[in-house]
């Protein structure tokens, strides 16, 4: 088990190093931010001074080394835009992103599990067709379009909810629902096909041959096995949502990490981009690790192999 | 005479598939007395497992469908019971042991959980009482240090041990009838012998009635009182084990017995192989289902289904469904060879 944990840790470190390296070089392709930061018509001397201040006059490789050294101590540099530590700027946006992500995830998972179960248990009946049709639509509908439609209907026409922004629970409803539609559609489809597979298993027949109640069979014998792949999917979705749902946050003017990173890319605010992406990578790694542990809880065979 | 424990009458089961209606079980009738061990033998698709699963509501419906018949168990017609009533019988009065304990046990639940389920369900035992009983059961089926191993998962057991767990589950509520479906097929020959010993021993101790479904005539010879040979969803021959092994009257039984390795032939001769393929059951069966593969078939075999009838001069209960007289034909064949 300790060997397994150490291995995982090393794997995670390499993954994070890979991500921060790629993001460093990709941001440099964006171009020189000093032109954007200075007023139009600034002199070449002013340019050079700013570049020296930002460390952009150094050779790329040296910039990379000092960047690596700094982030090893948790220092992602000062935001060009805000003049404050970049990681601080990103972390300030985390609560909003987390609020949206978890609401959408919980809502979407509940909906998805219920829908997927209904579909699997009603194989070949109308209920399955209806659920699967909605799931397909839910997965295929672009998030931005759904978001805009919801705004037009519930905010503009009916005036029940705000069009965007952040603060009250009412602000949360539309963006959370928009994301939950996609989440629940994915989970419903996966769970349905898993359930149908598991229902064919011999051990389900054994459970029925014991005369167990259908509810017991569904929860203990079928559900446990069918949920294992769904847990992985929930983990991946959670990682994506916590990294900031760029489109949804933008459509609903939600002050989250996704929107921040988009703004940072537009203004070539390298430290913020780097800090944001590093944070997302870190979140992914942590979630992956948690999923791995959860897997072991659900499936004793995996626990054994460690 | 007391009523038999199980009385199957004219049971027919079909499966509605895209390729047509599969007539899996056709007009099967038989009885089992309490304490009897009946071996049901046949190849895949003979209906041997399906008819038993069907009468206890364990085939998927649809596509499966029971078309006709009645199955009296302890005086009640199983086919007329509701699903809830059948649930009360399954795992309680009738226990099951399935093939391949690798897939028939749930991989993510402990043996304890899987073993106490029928006990809490049918006997109303508390979890603690059920656990005590479960340890006793594991002990009974010969699993060493049962108290420790009960907390483990199926993958931590060997194939033979898993099959023992399966048997413990089947016997948990002291069933009147134990149905074993290819219970030793997935095991090594030596492990198979151990498991068969165990079953014989348990049968003797508890007087359980057993239906042992297998494709292996050898297993039947060592375990069963009576044999029932099925083919194409029909009973071809049935009767006491000794009588059938001594003088089979169905060409199919004869073929099965000839294809068993025994004595010197094991090394010197090629094993006998029944020619042809199993029948396509999507066509409504006409005549004797084995006729197309039967070297002794008469024209009548192709047009009219032979009824199961007692054979004159053989042990009581030795019945065959055949239009031809196999012993006479075999004797004549030997005569011409000489």
Automatic annotation (TrEMBL), chain A:
It is a multi-pass membrane protein. GO terms for cellular component: plasma membrane. PROSITE patterns: ABC_TM1 (PS50928). Gene3D superfamilies: MetI-like. The chain crosses the membrane at residues 12-31, 100-121, 133-156, 168-191, 212-238, 277-298. It comes from the Bacteria. Keywords: Cell membrane, Membrane, Transmembrane, Transmembrane helix, Transport. GO terms for biological process: transmembrane transport. InterPro entries: BPD_transp_1_N, MetI-like, MetI-like_sf. Belongs to the binding-protein-dependent transport system permease family. PANTHER family: DIPEPTIDE TRANSPORT SYSTEM PERMEASE PROTEIN DPPB-RELATED. This is ABC transporter permease subunit.
TrEMBL record, chain B:
GO terms for cellular component: plasma membrane. Its main location: membrane. The keyword Disulfide bond does not apply. It is found in: Cell inner membrane. Keywords: ATP-binding, Cell membrane, Membrane, Nucleotide-binding, Transport. GO terms for molecular function: ATP binding; ATP hydrolysis activity. One of its GO terms (biological process) is transmembrane transport. Belongs to the ABC transporter superfamily. This is ATP-binding cassette domain-containing protein. The lineage of its organism: Bacteria, Pseudomonadati, Pseudomonadota, Alphaproteobacteria, Hyphomicrobiales.
